[in-house]
Write a sequence for this structure.
C-alpha cells in the first residue's frame, strides 16, 4: 500500500509541509511552474536549499507583489468591526515582533472571498475541494475562538494569499503523490507564549488548539509556536491516522525546513513508500428505513459522503407488517464511525444503527494523466494480489465528449491511441 508518513516532531506549517512533499516528487521545477500559473494574484512561489543542524532540505518562499509576508502563516484576519487588532497567529518560521507588519494597508478577505479565489484557480476539482475543505476547518476554528459566525471572519489579504499558496501547494502535491493512506506522528505544538497585537497568548494559539481537537499532540520543551493553524488544518484534512511510523519500505524522504533555528532541526520530515499488506480495517453502519421519500434518502446519502464515508449504498428490503423498505449501508474508516453514525441519525428517521467492524482487501491505486488529441484524461491504475489493470476516468471522457460533441467511444479510442497499454 502506498503510504505517506509525516513526522511532525517540530510541529507543522503550510510552507514546511509543501517543501517536504515537494522533495518527494523529484521534480521541483514542474511544481513551481504549476504553482506560479494557477492564478493567485501577485503571488510568486520559489524553493531554495536550507540547512538545519547539518541536514539539507528545502525551504519554500512565497512572495506577494514582490514582498515576503513577514508574519508568515498569517491567519491574521480582522473582523470588519475591529480592524485595528491583527489576529494572533503566525508561523513559527517568523519573528513575533514583526507580527503587525502590513496591517492597516490592505483589504481583508472574507471566507466567501477566499472560496471565490480558490474556485477561480487553474486546478483540478479535487484540489479545489481539498483546499476549500482545509479553509473551512480554519474558518470554523476562528469563528469559535471569536464567538462570531463564520460569515463574519475576515483574513488579512497579504497573509491570506501567502497561506492560500501553502494550502493549494500541499493539495496539488497530495494529488500528484496520490498515497493510499496518510499517517502522521503526534504533533509537537511548542510551548510558552507568543506576543502579538492582542497581548500575550499561550501556545498553541487558540484556533490551532481547536483544530487539533481529537489529534494526539504535545507541548514539549521548545518555547515558541511550532504548529500553525494552516499546518494543523492540512494535517486534520489529509491524515487518516496519527501514531508511529508503520513497517514500510521507504522509497523517498523529504525535508521541509522552517525559517527559524532551534536546537532541534526545524523541519517536517516526510516518508513515502510501500507499507505491508493490502488489507485495512473498516466499519459498516446500517439502518432500515420505511418512512423516508426517495429525495430524502438521496439527500442523506450526499450528506454522508460529505461527512467522509468511503461508500454509501441502498438495497430494497421487506420489513415487518409486509412493508417495503430500504437498507441504508455506510462503509467508513473505523475512526470516523462515531461521526458517520451521528450524521445518519441527523439525516434519516432511524432510531438505531447497527455497527460491524470488518477488514477489506483492496488493490493499490494510482492516477496518471494522458494527453489525447481532444484533451487530458486521467487513468486509474489498480495493482496487487496478482492483478494489474487500468481504466480511464469516466468524468474526463464525458467532459471531452460533450466539449467536442463526440460519442464517448471516440474519446475512449483516442485514449487507446495515446496510451495503448492503458486498457
Amino acid at each position: 500500500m502506498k503510504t505517506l508518513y509525516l513526522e511532525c516532531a517540530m510541529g507543522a506549517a503550510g510552507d514546511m509541509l509543501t517543501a517536504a512533499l515537494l522533495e518527494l516528487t523529484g521534480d521541483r521545477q514542474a511544481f513551481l511552474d504549476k504553482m506560479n500559473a494557477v492564478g493567485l494574484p501577485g503571488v510568486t512561489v520559489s524553493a531554495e536549499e536550507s540547512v538545519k543542524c547539518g541536514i539539507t532540505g528545502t525551504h519554500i518562499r512565497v512572495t506577494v507583489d514582490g514582498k515576503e509576508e513577514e508574519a508568515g502563516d498569517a491567519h491574521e484576519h480582522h473582523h470588519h468591526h475591529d480592524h485595528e487588532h491583527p489576529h494572533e497567529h503566525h508561523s513559527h518560521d517568523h519573528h513575533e515582533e514583526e507580527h503587525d507588519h502590513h496591517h492597516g494597508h490592505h483589504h481583508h478577505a472574507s471566507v466567501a472571498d477566499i472560496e471565490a479565489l480558490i474556485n477561480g484557480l487553474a486546478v483540478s476539482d479535487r484540489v479545489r475541494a481539498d483546499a476549500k475543505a482545509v479553509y473551512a476547518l480554519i474558518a470554523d476554528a476562528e469563528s469559535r475562538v471569536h464567538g462570531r459566525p463564520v460569515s463574519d471572519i475576515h483574513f488579512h489579504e497579504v497573509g491570506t494569499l501567502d497561506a492560500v499558496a501553502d494550502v493549494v501547494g500541499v493539495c496539488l502535491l497530495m494529488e500528484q503523490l496520490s498515497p493510499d493512506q496518510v499517517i502522521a506522528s503526534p504533533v509537537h505544538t511548542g510551548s510558552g507564549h507568543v506576543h502579538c497585537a492582542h497581548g500575550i497568548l499561550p501556545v498553541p494559539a487558540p484556533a490551532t488548539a481547536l483544530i487539533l481537537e481529537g489529534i494526539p499532540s504535545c507541548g514539549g520543551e521548545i518555547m515558541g509556536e511550532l504548529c500553525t493553524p494552516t499546518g494543523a488544518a492540512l494535517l486534520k484534512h489529509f491524515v487518516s491516522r496519527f501514531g508511529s511510523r508503520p513497517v514500510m519500505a521507504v522509497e523517498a524522504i523529504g525535508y521541509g525546513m522552517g525559517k527559524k533555528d532551534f536546537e532541534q532541526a526545524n523541519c517536517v520530515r516526510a516518508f513515502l513508500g510501500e507499507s505491508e499488506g493490502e488489507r485495512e480495517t473498516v466499519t459498516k453502519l446500517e439502518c432500515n428505513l420505511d418512512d423516508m421519500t426517495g429525495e430524502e434518502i438521496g439527500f442523506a446519502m450526499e450528506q454522508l459522503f460529505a461527512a467522509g464515508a468511503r461508500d454509501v449504498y441502498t438495497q430494497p428490503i421487506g420489513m415487518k407488517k409486509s412493508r417495503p423498505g430500504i437498507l441504508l449501508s455506510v462503509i467508513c474508516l473505523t475512526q470516523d464511525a462515531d461521526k458517520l453514525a451521528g450524521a445518519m441519525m441527523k439525516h434519516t428517521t432511524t432510531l438505531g444503527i447497527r455497527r460491524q467492524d470488518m477488514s477489506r482487501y483492496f488493490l493499490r491505486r494510482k492516477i496518471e494523466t494522458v494527453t489525447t488529441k481532444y484533451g487530458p484524461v486521467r487513468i486509474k491504475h489498480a495493482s496487487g494480489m496478482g492483478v494489474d489493470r487500468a481504466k480511464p476516468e469516466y468524468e474526463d471522457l464525458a467532459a471531452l465528449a460533450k466539449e467536442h460533441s463526440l460519442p464517448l467511444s471516440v474519446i475512449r479510442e483516442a485514449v487507446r491511441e495515446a496510451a495503448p497499454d492503458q486498457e
